[in-house]
Amino acid sequence: MARFVMAGPSEYLAITGWGIDDVKLAKKAWVFAGQRCSKFDISPVKYEFYAEAMTSDKLAFHLPVVFTVGPDINNLRRFEEYMTPDVDADNNLLLYVKNIDLHDSHASNNRVKQLVLEAIERETRVLAASMTLEEISQRSRKFIGEMPNQVQLYLNKFGLCIYQADIKQPISHPDHTANTSEGVSAAASCQAQARRMARFMVAGASEYLAITGWGVDDVKLAKKAWVFPGQKCIKFDVTPVSYDIDVQAMSSEKLPFRLPAAYTIGPSPKIKRSTVLLLYAKLIAPLHNKSLNHVINLVKGVIEGETRVLASSMTMEEIFQGTKKFKEEVFDQVQLALKKFGLYIYSSNVKQLVDDPDPPGNEYFSFLGQKKQAEVESKAKVAEAEAQMKGEIGAKEREGLTLQNAAKVDAETKVLSVRQQGVGCKEEIKVKADVEVYENEREAEIAAAQAGLAVKKALLDKQSKLAEVEAVKAVAIREAELQLEVERKNALRLTEKLKAEKLSKATVQYETQVQDSNAALYNRQMAADATLFEQVKAAEARKAQAGAKFFEQKMAEDARLYAKQREAEALARVGKAKAKFVASMLQELGGDHDALRDNLMIDGGVYEEMARINASAMSGIQPKISVWSNEGGGDGADAGASAGAMLADVCNMLPPFLIQGNLTNGAV
């Protein structure tokens, strides 16, 4: 029976058998009878090696390396210039499927590990055989950069890609045993039996769903989704994780040091999120589900590798003096390497460089600090002596300045005292003059006030007398005004009474006349409105008649115009037909225009019309023709022949139209 098989986010299916020529790769597929299906994991695996090699001066050394290797699915190679241009992700996976044993995950990991180790040891031996140990140490950056490129060329044959290469400093310990650790198993997870009913899956705020199987081509990412039978769904967290790492590195002077750092790393938010999450779901999320140590080792390997590569090309003094630049370069290189896995450095805290206690006696930073401390103490003592000397000189200068300032103050005090005495005398004289002026002004003001008081008293007396007289007059005037008002009121009352009596009659008469006028006006208005209405209706009727007549004329003109157009079209078609007829007749007559003209005149009845006209012209004419012959008389036969010849001669002398007319009328 057929069965439906689906792969996880970091898995692929390899199907062979009936209906498939070579190998078919898919994320989901129906597997029929006669077909075989294998799952394989594409998650990168970290491998640690101690490659053994020997320099040109026959010194054996070990090269600790950490490689993160996996199938190349997105052409995310670090060494693109060494790749074959026409190799794509599908071909790489086919190479990986064909060359790596997928049926046993442990065996496949060992196979990959063995391939990488063989390539590393071979390329390391080839490069080291042409260099001394000192040259390898001095040119470590070139040596470390060249070896992964050659290894990648070898791994291309198997569809493998080096995601990250961390090559440490060579160590000359001949008895050093290889400390290898088994790579992370890439065992393919067995397909869980699909639930009979669909289920609705919801991811948390920091989670995503990765769905594969029926209806999904590769991997579908969602925050919520229905998971149907034939589909597989896993959750993965995208929360950034903090990693504390203590990087051991060595400068170009072979001085070891440590670089403590703390990195917060998670899926990148800056580039297209779907692409980042797909990489993260395929390469990193499966490692979280297996063990967090896998991710820690991966990140640690990237950071340590980039730090060692940068440190190996710089002296300790350059690293210490340019600490900020060194940290920025480490950050940039680490970010570039993590981008392949869809990871982004949210924050990095690279601490101060410290001495590496292994091997003992490495106290470069301690000695450097003691040196700086001694320099500071020496500078402090010199500064203290200079300050003491400047203090004594300043004290003497202050004493001299004090004496100078005291003498100057005494002289200025005496001058100021004399000046103040003169100013005091001037002020005293001025005050006395001001007092006298003030007394005189006060006396003048008193006299003016007394005169004003007398004037005001006289005015008040006058005003009081005038007020008494005016009061008496006002009483009399008021009495007269009241009397006048009473009389005026009486006259007004009588006037109103008379006005009311006469006005009532006039008002009634006026109202009657107004009503009559309004009635007559209304009648005239109604008559005018009726006349206007009749005129408007008559005008509208005439307008309608004129419109109907115009429409009738327009329709007749349109009909005539249409008839003329149709007649013109008919004539045009007849003319075209005649032209075609004449052309075809001319062609049949071999281009003889005279023959064509005669035929056209015959078809048109021209000759018949000419005969008819000639006959009508000759009708009523009775010509009498006498023929005399001077020839002697003979027998009857000769006489008849002679008469016929004479008649023929006469006919030949007649105009052609007479002959045609006679022929038509049957005269000849």
From TrEMBL:
Pfam families: Band_7. Its main location: membrane. It is a lipid-anchor. InterPro entries: Band_7, Band_7/SPFH_dom_sf, Flotillin_fam. Keywords: Cell membrane, Lipoprotein, Membrane. It is found in: Cell membrane; Membrane, Caveola. Residues 25-180, 219-388 form the Band domain. GO terms for cellular component: caveola. Transmembrane segments: none annotated. Belongs to the band 7/mec-2 family. Flotillin subfamily. This is Flotillin-like.
